[in-house]
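Hi everyone,

Forwarding the result from last night's run.
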Amino acid sequence: MPGIANITVQEFQARVRRFDRSYVNDWNTWIAAGDNNRAAQFGAVLRRWQACRPNRMRRTQADRRHAAPYLEDLIAQSSKFVGALQNFDIRVSSSFTNQTKESLENLWEVFRHLCYHGRARNGLAGVVGISKSVILLTEGRVGPAFDSKVRGHLEIRALQNAGQWINALRTVSEDIQAFEGRNRCTLQDAMPSEFARLHGGRIYDMALGPGS
């Protein structure tokens, strides 16, 4: 599993610093937005991240592109499950409780409907759209986003259901724990100082995600 378990802090920091700056800017815009025009910002970021390609992603009600549900509806449907993950820490195996599993399963079901049109996956969103939605709404607690770049690093195939997604998150947790044990520091301690306040899922996403 060629994640981060066998690299040094210096190598880890080099990976993070290579992370595509446009994604950093998108993240900062999302976090700064807060509740201000939240659904529109959510959609704008996910479209830039190509979360639903090749299907068409849902829009806000104001966009008048399709029938309900709209992005506002999906965010509202997910809020209870996102709230249940406020104390989730991908670094810690004890975070994977029955409640966590149930919340993640429900989030998978909500964001399967992120698309409103398309032939891929019978018109539904896949793990890329789902995991990118969840990493945004949990502010980086639940991550990484399992795009092809991250899956390639971890040598895992496309994830087809919630159970496989949860197992992949457990694999990430084990990889982080191995890195921390090898380097005798936490993931946050290993980060370049300008990113040290990020949550673990987002940090891991940057380490394995696309470089500039």
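The first strand starts at residue 56 and ends at 57.

Cheers,
N.
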